[in-house]
Structures are given as structure tokens and as C-alpha cells.
Amino acid sequence: MLKSGQKLREISFELERITSILELERMKKLSKNIPNLSQNAIRIIFDLEDSLVNKPVRFDKVSDKIEIMFNELAPLLRTELTKEEKMMIVNAIGLSPGHWYKCPNGHVYCIGECGGAMEKSICPECKAEIGGHNHQVVTGNQLASEMDGATRPAWPTGLDY
Fold it and tell me: How far is CA 43 from CA 3, 20, 149, in A?
């Protein structure tokens, strides 16, 4: 007979496994929309399915391996936005040209209000520093003209490093 603490741990591990299965299904659905999906991505999807569904073992024994595989798979499933999708995003946000920037690793973000950076933050994708202070973006951030066609920042000194 299992002790209540052990039961709770096992239930917790099973919930983590089920959550991982749901994430795998989401990623499989996403992968179907990617033409010429890499063999590496396909292999990782099959390995995840084996570890989570086909040949399951205690989740606490494989959770680190599962996390590594998800982290390897995620960037392989990213796709570039089309020009039309970018235009829809820009129109939905409703800012004038020059409000869109990208971190040193190319992840796009926007600065509202006047378009001049007034606070620093961290890129949610790669943890690089984004934003800035005194209306200037931090070094390494660039104007993301591919979003709105801007040739200069909305705030005139926005890129003066």
C-alpha cells in the first residue's frame, strides 16, 4: 500500500506526463503545416511519442530527457511570418511606422506610446535585453523594418547607441 505522500508524487508525475502529451500533440499539429520538415524534427517527435505514449516509464525517470527533447524541437517548428501576417499584426497594434524593434537574436517586439524606449526588459524568446531608457534602445537591438517598412525609429534618437 502506498503512503499518501508517495501517491501525491505519483499523481503529480502523471499529470506532468499528460501535460507533456498534450504539448506533443500541439507540436505535431503545428508540424503538419511546415513543408519539408527536417528529419531531426521528425525523429524528435517520434522519440517523444515513444517516451510518453508507446513505451512509457515512470515520468520522474525521463522528465529531464523529455524537457531537453521539447527544447530541441521548438526552434525546429518555428516558421517565419508572411508579409500579410506581419501587416495584420501591425494594423492590429495600430502604431505608426518605427515602433517595431528586434533583439540581438532577431525576435521582434514593439515600443508603444512615442516609440522611444523608456524601460528595459528581457526577450521572452531568448532572454536577451530589450527596450532601453531615455528614449534609446539598448545596444544590439535594431529597428525591425521588416514589420512595417520603417526606415527610421518613431523616436528620432531611438537608435543612438
Answer: 39, 17, 38
Q: What is the pLDDT of residues 12-65, one digit of tens each?
A: 888 999 999 999 998 998 898 888 899 999 999 999 999 999 987 888 889 999
Tens digit of each residue's pLDDT (9 = 90 or more) over 98-111: 999 999 988 899 99
| Contact criterion met (CB below 8 Å) for 100 and 121 | no
SS3 (DSSP) at 100: strand
What is the DSSP code string of 112-137? -TTS---SEEE-TTT--EEEEETTEE
Contacts for 90 with CB less than 8 Å, ≥ 6 apart: 100, 147, 148
